[in-house]
């Protein structure tokens, strides 16, 4: 399957994940849009963000591609859990829609494959958030445009990580099996060296969130070191 132009534009890019958790002072669409624009000025090649308001606000502020998702709930499939959520992200302005690629049950009763098939029919580009090589194989088989290691690292919704850094082994395995498929590294990229290691492992692009856009966590790292 040929790589879509919007996905080709992500090759070699640093993708900034601009998200704030519920109850945090930065959780406001305008604040997220300002953060996204700051990342764009710093050289980010794309923005990953969640929620319809944030997607819309960021799309209106930035010129780089927007990867959108919609988190709902806290257990099971909550990253763009249904076809309705995915279509809404696209309508809000997302150039690529990210969704959970595991085989767990979804709230609308559709399988992952059925959801992707409907989105492909709509002409919507998809990023599959994967936890393991089986998820990546499933995503490639049903025609997802990008696969990502979003759910594979330590601390993810499905914790399959062996260490605190990015899942380089999964990236290498995926790139080896699917050399023509864009494989994105996401999760536990905490420093420039982690990002470089991911690219050296064959990643198409690297997503960095907390280490760039979550000052509460960054501050806590320094506080812990000082203490």
Automatic annotation (TrEMBL):
It catalyses: an N-acyl-D-glucosamine 6-phosphate = an N-acyl-D-mannosamine 6-phosphate. Pathway: Amino-sugar metabolism; N-acetylneuraminate degradation; D-fructose 6-phosphate from N-acetylneuraminate: step 3/5. Pfam families: NanE. Its EC number is 5.1.3.9. InterPro entries: Aldolase_TIM, NanE, RibuloseP-bd_barrel. One of its GO terms (molecular function) is N-acylglucosamine-6-phosphate 2-epimerase activity. Coiled coil: none annotated. It comes from the Bacteria. CDD domains: NanE. Keywords: Carbohydrate metabolism, Isomerase. Belongs to the NanE family. Converts N-acetylmannosamine-6-phosphate (ManNAc-6-P) to N-acetylglucosamine-6-phosphate (GlcNAc-6-P). This is N-acylglucosamine-6-phosphate 2-epimerase. It comes from Kribbibacterium absianum.
